[in-house]
Design the sequence.
């Protein structure tokens, strides 16, 4: 079945770039998403990418998609302490309504 | 900015009791969803709802679960006879006409079954 995998933890220094990686198995994935979850809060949609794109940039966020390897990454430039959160990768398959989530990557930004 | 709201934020119930979790999706959205996250596990899809009917459901969404849009603004998830393993954070989400452009999530309801 469909599966999405992420590394569990990433620690970076404030001001550095963060790169969070994700792999997925569903070859019919049409859209891929990044969500952010801060403590006690819901899932905030950060950005998405359509599967026929290989890059999308939105301010400090850059999403890279390698469809051949089924690999997605989120780069956060100039990481700030306010970026500390759990980041979830998710995908949706063709004609489906359900998001398939990864287990989330906890990003810790050190001052 | 419009947002999805959920009530209550925390619900404690006894095993076997019925619970209703409530959500108010973003007002012009057309697609509605419930997900849950058991502590330490992935966020799992339960059900999607469009045009007053279920459009997709997971294996988790058995006869104990039901959804309803009782009026133009609320979207509810009912669990008829709760089990210990139903303890989880339940998230409601909604999306607009371009449903693949993103599902917008509420803050969640933490359900504790004793």
Sequence:
């Amino acid at each position: 079945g469909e599966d999405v995998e992420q590394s569990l933890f990433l620690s970076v220094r404030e001001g550095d770039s963060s790169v969070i990686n994700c792999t997925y198995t569903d070859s019919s994935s049409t859209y891929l998403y990044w969500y952010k979850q801060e403590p006690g809060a819901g899932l905030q949609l950060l950005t998405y990418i359509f599967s026929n794109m290989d890059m999308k940039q939105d301010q400090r966020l850059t999403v890279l998609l390698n469809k051949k390897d089924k690999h997605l990454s989120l780069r956060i430039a100039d990481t700030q302490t306010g970026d500390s959160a759990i980041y979830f990768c998710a995908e949706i398959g063709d004609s489906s309504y359900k998001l398939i989530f990864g287990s989330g990557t906890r990003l810790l930004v050190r001052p | 900015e419009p947002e999805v709201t959920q009530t209550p934020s925390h619900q404690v119930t006894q095993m076997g009791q019925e619970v209703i979790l409530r959500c108010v999706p973003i007002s012009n959205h057309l697609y509605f969803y419930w997900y849950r996250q058991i502590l330490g596990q992935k966020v799992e899809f339960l059900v999607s709802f469009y045009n007053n009917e279920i459009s997709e459901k997971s294996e988790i969404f058995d006869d104990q679960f039901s959804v309803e849009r009782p009026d133009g603004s609320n979207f509810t998830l009912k669990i008829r006879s709760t089990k210990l393993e139903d303890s989880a954070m339940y998230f409601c989400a909604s999306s607009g006409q371009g449903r693949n452009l993103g599902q917008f999530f509420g803050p969640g309801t933490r359900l504790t079954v004793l």
